[in-house]
Design a protein that fits this description.
With 56 residues, the protein is an all-alpha fold. The protein has 3 helices and no strands.
């Protein structure tokens, strides 16, 4: 899938939160984004699994 579509979706989601005044949801969005980035970067490495269990 094209990276442009993913970035556009992320920008639209953040814009929705900011436009509707739902600022309290932004920390949750950041935590989910951080977890997603970590999952993509580690990409199923088995030696990273114990750290995931400790964090979440």
């Amino acid at each position: 899938m094209n990276l442009g579509y993913r970035v556009r979706t992320l920008i639209a989601l953040v814009g929705h939160f900011l436009h509707r005044g739902r600022y309290f949801l932004i920390p949750m969005l950041l935590v989910l984004l951080f977890a997603g980035v970590l999952l993509v970067l580690t990409g199923g490495l088995s030696y990273v699994a114990p750290f995931w269990y400790a964090i979440f």
